[in-house]
């Protein structure tokens, strides 16, 4: 899907799920326990590139979600559809016990996955998540997404705002993220937006048995304090951290600090 091949794209592997639908992913091949990283809406596995060096003690499995990057679209564009595809992907790789880090839509996907694989998910880290991500049909954001048409301009006004951050982020990285996002067909943008309007993960959250860490930024323009408060009350075992002054992408804004929080939590989960 992406016309510009760089080192991140060149390192990807591909597996073909039933139905001839490939999933592209990076695998660090580390000797530690598996850690699945799920990116957000319009992103690719590149979203976790800055975190990767800090998580070297794990075997990092970083897929492009269906319809994103170089992964084919699956049976649908709802969070539950993405979770089902990732479940099949993990089965194909022969991975059973694993921890999960999810960002935004990837965090929602992680909740659904952990609810279905209660005995397999050992820990769950949710960044900038929401249980009910409906943006509102008449909001400026929803109207902006519905207005997208192919080809999407990676330097256009919409993606410039979509990838704005509350703290400085390396410009070349953001430029590559925008190119990846622009390569995603407008129909996929629209379909995911429609799926968000129908998404309610409260029941799924109640079924999660793994310990949960929620990380959110106080300046998150998409999922603010009501979303963070709902998450803090949703799981049987949950810890919630709000980073003051951080936006929707804290793992880009301060990967060292965010990875330290994750590693501490994952170590505690392994010892429990």
TrEMBL record:
* Matches recorded under InterPro entries: AB_hydrolase_1 (IPR000073), AB_hydrolase_fold (IPR029058), AB_hydrolase_sf (IPR050266)
- Per the record, a Pfam family? Abhydrolase_6
Keyword annotations of the record: Hydrolase, Plasmid
- Transmembrane segment boundaries: none
A Gene Ontology molecular function term of the record:
hydrolase activity
GO CC aspect terms: membrane
Q: What is the protein name stated in its UniProt record?
A: Biotin synthesis protein BioH
Q: Which organism is it from?
A: Sinorhizobium americanum
Source lineage: Bacteria, Pseudomonadati, Pseudomonadota, Alphaproteobacteria, Hyphomicrobiales
């Amino acid at each position: 899907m992406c016309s510009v091949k760089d080192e991140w794209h060149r390192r990807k592997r591909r597996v073909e799920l039933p139905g001839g639908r490939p999933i592209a992913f990076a695998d660090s091949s580390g000797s530690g326990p598996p850690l699945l990283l799920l990116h957000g809406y319009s992103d690719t596995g590149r979203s976790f590139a800055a975190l990767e060096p800090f998580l070297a003690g794990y075997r990092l499995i970083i897929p492009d979600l269906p319809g994103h990057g170089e992964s084919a679209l699956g049976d649908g564009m709802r969070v539950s559809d993405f979770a089902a595809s990732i479940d099949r992907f993990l089965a194909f790789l022969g991975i059973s016990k694993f921890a999960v880090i999810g960002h935004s839509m990837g965090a929602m996907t992680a909740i659904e996955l952990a609810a279905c694989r209660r005995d397999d998910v050992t820990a769950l880290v949710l960044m900038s998540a929401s249980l009910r991500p409906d943006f509102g049909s008449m909001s400026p954001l929803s109207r902006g997404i519905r207005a997208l048409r192919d080809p999407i301009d990676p330097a256009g006004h919409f993606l410039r705002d979509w990838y704005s951050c509350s703290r400085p982020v390396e410009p070349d990285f953001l430029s590559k993220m925008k190119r990846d996002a622009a390569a995603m067909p407008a129909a996929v943008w629209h379909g995911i937006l429609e799926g968000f309007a129908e998404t309610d993960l409260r029941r799924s959250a109640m079924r999660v048995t793994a310990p949960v860490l929620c990380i959110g930024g106080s300046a998150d323009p998409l999922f603010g304090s009501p979303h963070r408060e709902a998450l803090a009350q949703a799981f049987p075992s949950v810890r919630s951290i709000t980073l003051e002054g951080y936006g929707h992408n804290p793992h880009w804004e301060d990967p060292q600090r965010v990875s330290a929080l994750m590693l501490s939590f994952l170590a505690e989960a392994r010892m429990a």
